[in-house]
Structure formats: structure tokens, C-alpha cells
Request: fold
Amino acid sequence: MLLWILNSLSPQEIRDRIMDPNSDFQKRIVEYLESVHVGEFMTGTMDEVKEKVDENMKAKEYRDPTQTLPDAPPEPTDCDCNKCESCENTASWWQNFKNTVDDLILRSNVHKCCCINEHGNCKARFPRQTFEKTEVDPKTGALNIKKGERWINTLTPIVTFLLRCNSDVTSLLSGTAIKAI
Reply:
């Protein structure tokens, strides 16, 4: 699925604004991109998530999230006391959301290297470089989004939760990346 926003800035216009030292555009686009896609699990490291999923799978009521439909969130409320039943239901739903997304990432998004070329390298270019925080190349304006796991691509948690499958997500900010699609 490719989304292109009508009347949005072109990749070159975005790059020009990212590199403008007098603009807060760089800060705002980094905040936006970090808010809509991640390159790591939501509740821990891959090893921690794997251990938790393995333990959950032992429970009789466990359901493989790739074989189920997503649970709807609770009805919205204006309350934010964090003590009432409504607030507890909302907090519980969000925790379940994070655990489910992590289970889905572990099952569907972790690369299992089965595509080694004649030189012994993964054709999908895994493992990938990680970034403790988002970096901007000052010469090119290229963005390297915060990414904590070497064996997964970036994804949008809500898309993964809804589609229940591998759902790599990226921001296409170069002509080369766009042409590759």
C-alpha cells in the first residue's frame, strides 16, 4: 500500500526544509515520523518479547494474533482519573494492544535469513543498522529514524495491529527510494 498525500511537499522540498538552519521543520518532521513508525518492539527487547510470547503461548486461552481479528478499543471517554473502570479498561486495552503488536512483530516482521547470496550476504540486507536516536545527515538531509532492532524494518504499530501481518513502513524522501517502489 502506498499513500501519497495530495498537495504535499515533494521529497526535494522536504529535504530543502530539513536542511534550512532557520526552520524548525527538521524538528517537527522528526517528531512526526517518530510518532507514526518504529523500528523496535513496544514493550522490550526482542529477547524479552520472545520470552513473554513463549510464556503466553502456554496459556490455554492464548490465541495466535495472526489468526484473529483485532479487539476494538473501549468507548472514548473524557475521564482521565486513571482510577475508574472506564480508565482502567482503556489502560488495559492499550497494554493488550502493545503486547499484541509485539507478538505480531515477532511472528511476522522479524527477518529470518533464508536469502543468502553466493557471497554469504543476506539479499534483503539484514541485519540492518540501528540508531539510538534519529539522525539527520547535515550534507544530504537524509533521515535515519530511531531504530532499536537489527532484524526488523520500521513499521506503524496501528497498521500492524489492524492488518495482523508484516507491514513495513517507511517515509520515501529520495527519488531513488520512490523509483524502487
In short: Strands lie at 135-136, 143-144. The chain has a mean pLDDT of 91. The two ends are 10 Å apart (CA to CA).
